[in-house]
Amino acid sequence: MQILITGGAGFIGSNIALTLQKLYPEAEITVLDNFTSGNFKNLENFKGEFIAGDIRSKELWDYLGRKYSFDVVFHQAAITDTTVEDQNYMLEVNTNAFKYLLDTALERWGAKVIYASSAAVYGNCPAPMREDGCLKPENVYGFSRLMMDNLAFRYLRKYPDAVIIGLRYFNVYGFGEAHKGKFASMVYQLMAKMVRGEKPRLFKWGEQKRDFVYIKDVVKANLLAMEKGIGGVYNVGSGRARSFNELVAILNEVLGTDFDIEYFDNPYDFYQNYTEADLTKISNVLGYKPDWSLEEGVRDYFQTLKEKGIIDKLLRNK
């Protein structure tokens, strides 16, 4: 197989790249990234080819179309900072670039495309969220992802034999996100504060709920999409919403701490208060079922961070 992973130096892309390298040692894997939100350290032991480039460049896609031929494209490159307010920039990177990718992948390569969408398309719609239900993004990030999904459906109609699979990620956490700092998951941010001996801080009163999904389940969903190859858009989550107060309680247990929570006012007017994935479609069509509960995922994540020396680094930076 010839595989392209855009955003392959980022959190999710690098986990996909390294897992594919392990499972498919004969595959030729190429990573495309411009390090806007990625880090070369995420690709430690990567044996494939790396291309530095901006996915907004149509000239880049024309070049790739002429010089390469890929069987599968995992499209993870995007602006993932949900607080970015520059609407034109967000749509250029997330939506326009996706169109260049689809044109190249389908017309030049005939490749299968698996791309990252987001639960942000649902905004504050009633939970559990269904793929064919309410769609009401609260910010331009969610809107850009919804426009990607609309493009995917348009191309599926235009190319009936094409395989385009969108995965609407809920709140992903796990190894490979530490470099993102304040844009890392709340699981990592809270864990880092508590490891350093600081009180966890939450928006009042910590009862907002999220569907936290472990990176290993997200990689599993991507592999199933590649193997099953049935076009459409699917939720990827744990299927169970958990409050931030519950998350702190789990972290206290895993870390052996007993921190009280400091609450403060939420400054955002576009905040999602409750997300939970309905997994019926992805379970029935792709055979996806999450393997990791939040308790198990947090414990495994902490052990991985210890083994990789990141916990010691956090302690040194107290």
How does this structure look, described?
This protein has helices at 11-23, 58-67, 87-109, 140-158, 186-195, 215-228, 244-255, 280-286, 294-307, 310-316, and strands spanning 2-6, 28-33, 49-52, 72-75, 112-118, 164-169, 171-173, 201-203, 209-210, 212-214, 232-236, 242-243, 262-264. The chain is globular, with a radius of gyration of 19 Å. With 318 residues, the chain is of the alpha/beta class. The chain has 10 helices and 13 strands. Helix content is 41%, strand content 17%. A 7-stranded parallel beta sheet has the order 3-2-1-4-5-6-11, sandwiched between helices. Strands 7-10 form a two-stranded parallel ribbon. α1 packs across α6, α2 runs parallel beside α3 and α5 crosses α7.
Brief account:
With 318 residues, the protein is of the alpha/beta class. The chain has ten helices and 13 strands. The longest helix is centred in the N-terminal third of the chain and has 23 residues, at 87-109.
User: For the largest beta sheet, what order do the strands appear in spatially?
Assistant: 3-2-1-4-5-6-11
Class derived from helix and strand content: alpha/beta
Name the helicity range. Answer: 40-55%
Shape: globular
Task: For the record, give the distance between the C-alpha atoms at the N and C termini, rounded to a whole number.
Answer: 46 Å
Residue runs with pLDDT of under 50 for 5 or more positions: none
Run of helices and strands: EHEEHEHEHEEHEEEHEEHEHHH
* Number of E-state strands: 13
Q: Quote the average pLDDT.
A: 96
How many individual helices?
10
Largest sheet: 7 strands, parallel
Report the sheet-strand fraction.
15-25%
